[in-house]
UniProtKB/TrEMBL annotation:
Pathway: Purine metabolism; IMP biosynthesis via de novo pathway; 5-amino-1-(5-phospho-D-ribosyl)imidazole-4-carboxamide from 5-amino-1-(5-phospho-D-ribosyl)imidazole-4-carboxylate: step 2/2; Purine metabolism; AMP biosynthesis via de novo pathway; AMP from IMP: step 2/2. GO terms for molecular function: lyase activity. Transmembrane segments: none annotated. The keyword Repeat does not apply. It comes from Streptomyces wedmorensis. Its EC number is 4.3.2.2. Keywords: Lyase. Gene3D superfamilies: Fumarase/aspartase (Central domain), Fumarase/aspartase (N-terminal domain). The keyword Lyase applies. Residues 8-283 form the Fumarate lyase N-terminal domain. Residues 255-274 are annotated as: Disordered. This is Adenylosuccinate lyase. It catalyses: (2S)-2-[5-amino-1-(5-phospho-beta-D-ribosyl)imidazole-4-carboxamido]succinate = 5-amino-1-(5-phospho-beta-D-ribosyl)imidazole-4-carboxamide + fumarate; N(6)-(1,2-dicarboxyethyl)-AMP = fumarate + AMP.
Length: 423
């Protein structure tokens, strides 16, 4: 991922050097297990524990001669080891015993970072919803004025969507936080299953129950789909901000710094560029989700078609999502909200926003539905709605937004339950 959309803590997790550090950790743990089984001498184990993590540049240098990253890593890892100790490294293992077990550990840590960012976003959304729970605004369906709601209610919907995404991510984390150290076709032919148990337990991983040579890729597909769904939920927030920021609406505005400049040609412009960026990044995440589904079906016990895909998709998906969610939290936290503009949008309907309440009242008083509906519809021509109703012989008292909020406390109590998750 380009540095523009990468936050340091996530970017570092996916660096080449971080990968080799995790590989070294797996190799040391595997040697420990072999020593406990009596297959690796204690002196060799001590040497292996002291081995330095190879520099990424050195692995790349060796790979130019070997054309195999794992063999190049092992050569670099063993460079400073005595020959009598180096020969015990990677004992009984195949390449993906190392790669997939280390990947499970990395994915678990990346999930933790992303889940943490998503929880922050959920908290910011809940706080903003509570702050504006009674801020009346016009609801819109099909992009058209409907009936009153509140801005807090609108934001609460986003908070619950993010909460569902967090739950999906937590489940996906459990599915990908697994490893396998089972040999070339997953039969443990040359390695005791205890090695796998020891390594995975030390790394906080589960074990692939029926390994081939690799961890099953439906796990990774599920994960990236969960990430893409979270991205879509962020996009939903971003689209709403963009729509409400339009010049003729201007009910909200993105936070601005003193350095902000919206257009190279038009100094007056105040564009919702952060929200637009969040929408664009969501498109990338959806594309990655489809690509990861292509990785599920590998040939027999394993082929390598998934590897090149994952080298791009997994770091990019996590990096993009982490950036996107973090930026969304900052956007919502500092979002400028204009309650007077929201109330003005309701008033500009000249009472039409209350037509459903008028219809309901008249039906309850015994009016015939089709005739009453048509009469109200005919009166909805842009002039003062309640004045026109009276000229039609309909005696309807003017109402306000509060008429539509009589049961709003039910939703607020649900929001409070969500708020408790933050403490």
């Amino acid at each position: 991922m380009i540095a523009r959309y990468a936050l340091p803590e996530m970017a570092e997790l996916w660096s080449d050097q971080a990968r080799y550090t995790t590989w070294a950790e797996v190799e040391v743990l595997a040697s420990e297990a072999q020593a406990l089984l009596g297959r690796v001498p204690e002196a060799a184990l001590e040497d292996i524990r002291r081995a330095r993590v190879p520099a990424a540049a050195r692995v790349a240098e060796l790979e130019r001669d070997r054309d195999h990253e794992i063999l190049s890593f092992l050569a670099a890892f063993c460079e400073d080891l005595p020959d009598d100790s180096a020969r015990w490294v990677h004992l009984g293992m195949t390449s993906y015993d190392l790669v997939d077990t280390a990947l499970g550990h990395t994915l678990a840590r990346a999930c933790d970072l992303l889940i943490g960012a998503a929880r922050r976003l959920r908290g910011v959304l809940v706080d903003k919803a509570v702050e504006h729970w009674d801020t009346a605004c016009i609801g819109r369906t099909h992009g058209m004025h409907a009936e009153p709601t509140t801005f807090g209610h609108k934001i609460a919907g986003f908070a619950f969507a993010v909460d569902r995404s967090i739950r999906r991510l937590v489940d996906a984390r459990e599915q990908v936080a697994v490893g396998t150290i089972s040999g070339s076709v997953g039969t443990y032919a040359l390695i005791d299953p205890f090695v796998e148990e020891h390594v995975c337990a030390a790394l906080g991983l589960g074990v692939e129950p029926a390994p081939s040579q690799v961890v099953a890729r439906d796990r990774h597909a599920q994960l990236v789909q969960a990430i893409a769904t979270l991205g879509a939920c962020v996009e939903q927030i971003a689209v709403e901000v963009r729509l409400l920021s339009r010049s003729e609406v201007r009910e909200v505005e993105e936070p601005r710094t003193a350095a902000y400049q919206g257009s190279s040609a038009m100094p007056h412009k105040r564009n919702p560029t952060t929200s637009e960026r969040l929408s664009g990044l969501a498109r990338l995440l959806r594309g990655y989700a489809g690509t990861m589904l292509e990785n599920v079906a590998l040939w027999h016990e394993r082929d390598l078609s998934h590897s090149s895909v994952e080298r791009v998709v997994l770091p990019d998906a996590f990096t993009i999502a982490h950036y996107q969610v973090t930026a969304a939290a900052d956007l919502v936290r500092d979002l400028q909200v204009f309650p007077d503009r929201m109330r003005s949008a309701i008033d500009q309907t000249n009472g039409l926003a209350y037509s459903s309440a008028v219809l309901a009242d008249l039906l309850e008083s015994g009016s015939e539905r089709e005739k009453t509906y048509r009469m109200i519809q005919d009166a909805a021509n842009g002039e003062d709605f309640f004045t026109l109703l009276r000229t039609e012989g309909i005696d309807a008292d003017p109402v306000g937004p509060e008429r539509y909020l009589v049961h709003h406390d039910v939703i607020y109590k649900r929001l409070e339950n969500l708020r408790e998750l933050e403490h």
